[in-house]
Write a structure and sequence with these properties.
- InterPro entries: Beta_propeller_containing (IPR019198), UCP006425_b-propeller (IPR014441).
- Pfam families: Beta_propel (PF09826).
- By secondary structure, the protein is mainly β.
- It has 7 helices and 44 strands.
- A 7-stranded mixed sheet has the order 1-18-20-19-15-14-3, with no helix packed on it. A 6-stranded antiparallel sheet has the order 10-11-12-13-16-17, with no helix packed on it. A 5-stranded mixed sheet has the order 2-21-22-23-24.
- Helix 1 runs antiparallel to helix 5.
């Protein structure tokens, strides 16, 4: 905090005002946007013109985000007085991400030599596993149905004489899976959560904590260890790599007592993080959350390393490569300063004495919201001093110039900060920043030491004015310096899907049609668009079926659409086939774990509302080979040449050589 005296009430020295008038709607909407009171970003279109490209300037170089540790509790508290709080809290469950590569077959050791092929969870990075609701070791399947609650016996009536309602208890089913003729439910675990399987240890991520179960006897799993979340901490994301579990927790900052924090308890001992071990950005960016990254031994449940830092929950993305853990969070720049820059550029709209008073407010030692309240009050007083004719003129001129200013400074307002954490020592290796914000987990990728990042930029979205948006691709080096970029893709549209594979990238933007872009990263410092294809509908998940074959899963109208793309000539991508399902939704649209590819049989599986669907893709054609109805299908996996379709109420086993049903189990 500086020693500047508290601001005094600002009075106007201009013309005498008439009876008070309301603040003009356009100005009020702008101020509401800048104050961050809206929580939903709305993208609407406006007619494209030949000058549309002029609205979007290439991004300028922003201030580097640097990180350092707090020196004390007082230092943490002082830091919180200098940074703005986020305008809204994101819902729990951050976007999770890993880099691009499909894993059709798990590299697992199984006791039965007759098992030669096992599928694994559909992830994005080779040898980096992700938690999911189904795991197999080739002998057993561990599965958590969506309807995972079982009723307990009715309890005795309470003191008022009313029967006590049934309580519920979550459970994971242990199923003998191979050979399929012996399909049988053999045990249950009274936990609910996504799982990782590491040898004989099944790791379960529940709402209360992380539990390790020894499954040497799968019919009677035994608790090996447990780690419980403490003090309102919750899981952000988890990954398994080289027999180590990397996971991240988060907790909203307690501004009265921000540190120390105790995210976990192991046995009877709480794991505490000191104030002096928490990193923070040196730049003024919004923060509301303390993140803590951990390395856990799945055999013992012991924590070997940790790292804590503050950030924002606003649409954060977690990405892990074989070298580093990346955490991103998006935020708006200093809104009061952004607004003042607009007033400076358009000072002919206002008398000089008003500009001078606005400059004083900008320099006050106040929060952004307090500054914007002062600016709103000052401008309202000025507008009320005008007659109605002049007020209408200024209001319309103000609105038009504000729109132009937004377009010309599109990349100055919304930013995404990136923190790179090395896996070896779990230390901050680099920090960076790019304009816009990533859509989801597939917007990031690391390849040959370069990070590729796809972002959408929004202009005035919170006001719903229909201002244009743009989409950018950034390439960052190992120190997270921007070294290459592609800007202004899909003007007035937003990203619906992204996928990076080796030195190529694939991007889908959407408004009315689905532009499918093929990107070339062979020179990471000069990335370029190689080809583009426009088709109806959109894809929200892209999956590589082969080297030059991409599957898009999305929607057209109110139905699920599958698109098969041939990208052998990247400058001329072709949709070789499509299939419209009589379904309005599939879990694959927002959860890639629900998708299964079996490249040996050239088939893929996806669940939908009415059942499970198995498609072939030979000869650049999509063919519906098999459906399983009335199953409430959630996942599929294969062991050898048997496909197991897992539903909330049943498991069905199919022979992949003839698609005949081999067995069925009610669960």
């Amino acid at each position: 905090m500086n020693n500047q005296p508290a601001p005094q009430p600002v009075t106007l020295e201009g013309p005498n005002s008439e009876s008070p008038k309301k603040l003009p709607f356009v100005l009020l909407a702008i101020l509401i946007f800048l104050l961050g009171s809206a929580s939903v970003l709305v993208i609407q279109s406006f007619a494209q013109t030949s000058t549309m490209q002029n609205f979007f300037n290439p991004p300028g170089v922003g201030k580097k985000i640097n990180f350092e540790k707090f020196s004390s509790l007082e230092d943490f508290k002082a830091f919180l007085t200098t940074v703005p709080q986020t305008g809204f809290m994101a819902s729990f469950g951050l976007a999770r991400t890993l880099e691009s590569a499909a894993i059709p077959t798990a590299e697992l050791k199984v006791a039965d030599d007759s098992v030669t092929r096992i599928s694994a969870t559909n992830v994005q990075v080779k040898r980096i596993d992700e938690p999911d609701i189904a795991k197999t070791n080739g002998q057993e399947i561990f599965f958590l149905p969506e309807n995972f609650f079982r009723p307990l016996p009715l309890l005795e009536p309470d003191q008022m004489g009313w029967p006590v309602p049934n309580s519920v208890q979550p459970e994971i089913s242990a199923i003998r899976a191979f050979p399929p003729e012996q399909l049988k439910l053999i045990g249950q675990i009274d936990q609910a959560g996504e799982m990782l399987l590491v040898g004989q240890i099944l790791v379960i991520f529940s709402q209360e904590g992380i539990y390790g179960y020894n499954i040497a006897n799968p019919a009677s799993p035994q608790t090996a260890w447990q780690v419980t979340y403490q003090n309102n901490h919750s899981l952000t994301a988890a990954r398994l790599y080289q027999n180590k579990i990397y996971f991240l927790t988060q907790r909203q900052i307690d501004r009265n007592q921000p540190c120390p924090i105790a995210p976990l308890q192991i046995k009877e001992q709480k794991y505490q993080v000191r104030c002096t071990d928490i990193y923070h950005p040196t730049n003024t960016v919004p923060v509301d959350t303390t993140y803590t990254a951990f390395v856990l031994d799945p055999q013992s449940g012991q924590i070997s390393q940790s790292l804590a830092f503050v950030g924002s929950t606003s649409e954060s993305v977690i990405f892990m490569s074989s070298q580093a853990l990346y955490v991103t969070y998006s935020y708006y720049q200093d809104l009061a300063n952004f607004y003042y820059q607009f007033l400076q550029v358009n000072d002919d709209l206002f008398p000089q004495y008003l500009i001078s008073k606005l400059a004083k407010i900008k320099d006050y030692d106040l929060s952004n919201q307090a500054k914007m309240t002062e600016i709103q009050s000052l401008l309202a007083e000025y507008f009320n001093s005008l007659n109605e004719d002049e007020q209408l003129r200024v209001e319309n001129e103000f609105a038009n110039r504000w729109e132009d200013f937004n377009q010309n400074h599109l990349r100055d307002l919304e930013k995404t900060a990136i923190v790179k954490i090395g896996l070896d020592q779990l230390a901050v290796q680099a920090t960076g920043e790019v304009p816009g914000r990533p859509l989801n987990q597939f917007s990031l990728d690391e390849y040959q030491g370069y990070l590729r990042l796809a972002t959408t930029l929004r202009s005035g979205g919170q006001m719903g004015w229909g201002m244009a948006s743009a989409n950018d691709i950034y390439v960052l080096d190992g120190q997270l310096n921007t070294v290459g970029q592609i800007v202004n893709l899909g003007l007035t549209e937003q990203i619906y899907a992204a996928r990076f594979i080796a030195d190529r990238g694939y991007l889908v933007t959407f408004q009315k049609t689905d532009p499918f872009y093929v990107l070339d990263f062979s020179n990471p410092r000069q990335p370029q668009v190689k080809g583009e294809l426009k088709i109806p509908g959109f894809s929200s998940y892209l999956h590589p079926l082969a080297a030059n074959q991409i599957l898009g899963i999305g929607q057209e109208g109110s139905q699920v659409k599958l698109s098969l793309f041939d990208v052998s000539r990247p400058e001329n991508p072709v949709e070789t086939d499509q299939h419209i399902l009589d379904e309005y939704w599939s879990e694959v649209l927002n959860n890639h774990h629900a998708f299964l590819l079996d490249s040996q049989h050239q088939i893929f599986f996806l669940p939908a509302n009415r059942g499970g669907y198995i498609f072939g893709y030979r000869g650049n054609k999509l063919s519906l080979l098999r459906t399983v109805a009335n199953l409430q299908a959630r996942r599929a996996l294969y062991i050898n040449d048997y496909l197991y379709i897992l539903g909330d109420n049943q498991i069905v086993v199919l022979d992949e050589n003839n698609w005949e049903e081999v067995n069925r189990l009610n669960i």
